[in-house]
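Course assignment 3, question 2. Fill in each field.
Student: A.L.
Task: Predict the tertiary structure for the chain below.
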Amino acid sequence: MSGATWSSSAAHKEACVSVAPAPASVSTEVPLVEEIAEGLCFVCQSRAMREVRCMVDLVAQTNLPVLILGETGAGKEVIVRLIHHVSLRRNRPFLKVNCAALPAELLESELFGYEAGAFTGATRATAGKFEACHKGTILLDEIAEMPPEPQAKLLQVLQDGEYCRLGTAKPIRVDVRVLAATNVDIVRAIRTKRFREDLYYRLNAFSLQVPPLRERMEDIPVLLQHFIKTQSVALGCEPLPVSADLLKACLRYSWPGNVRELENFVKRYLIVRDERKAVTHLMPEAYRASSSAQSSTSTFSMKATDLKSLVRGLKEQAERQAIIGALELSRGNRKDAARILNISSRALIYKMREYGIDGAKANHSTELLA
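Answer field:
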């Protein structure tokens, strides 16, 4: 994956997908485009991601474990690879293990290896990922989903730098930099006894939070250009321009799938080669269906004859109604309304001002303007 790290009702839930704050200002700084490996770059424009980049430089020069937190698709693995890339271990092995993909027994043998006869089918001794990664870096992806059994052994590696293969009591010493990533609320996992608290504190010697794309909208223009450039080569097609309308649509969308969703959007745009069709996919499904149904019954104003005007009108009406509905459900509490819509409070206030909802709701809720 390239790029920077990179409900009240069904209708409200669908509508919230398309609500996002416009960037407060456009940075005049030169975008960062840093190649990590073939097909993998760190790309950013926002201050938030520049700060993450600075923290990467600091932590990369140590051997501390690092816990990288963030939503799915936000770019946690890019940050992990960047840490390894700028560290003193950059010429040593880098391996990734998905802790959620394997049951406990297989994960333990994958990480720590096993001796011949350790279990049925173990016909010869096999080294695990930690041995293969000696002097290098290992990424434990989806660490909060690791089954309980291997957690104790991982804790021993972090504490003592040694462990035993399955089927033997002979210790093996390793020197491995451990980086871990998760999109799960790891504190909740600890409370529910799914994750060891002592392991968490060992892993969390240093943590990095990768912000979601909706909180760093300044990155969208540079990411669009980057993905169009790289994906046009990968797909074997000519690059396409980013028009003002396309950029505006992307800035108004909240990108619940984060940078990964933006990359897939660019791929679709390059394949269909039709800006209008590409932008339609940024509309919530419920309102795409509503648009089709209302068009067929001629309920639109005949003055709005072009598709873009119709789409814009429907989208804005849907957003306004969704926000009003969320405010009613939350009795005017903006934080609760933002939580219902799955957007930030800043995004909610921006949209309320845009649609004049403060005045519209003043008679319905005394708390709204508090």
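Instructor remarks: The chain has 17 helices and nine strands. The longest helix spans residues 307-329.
Grade: pending
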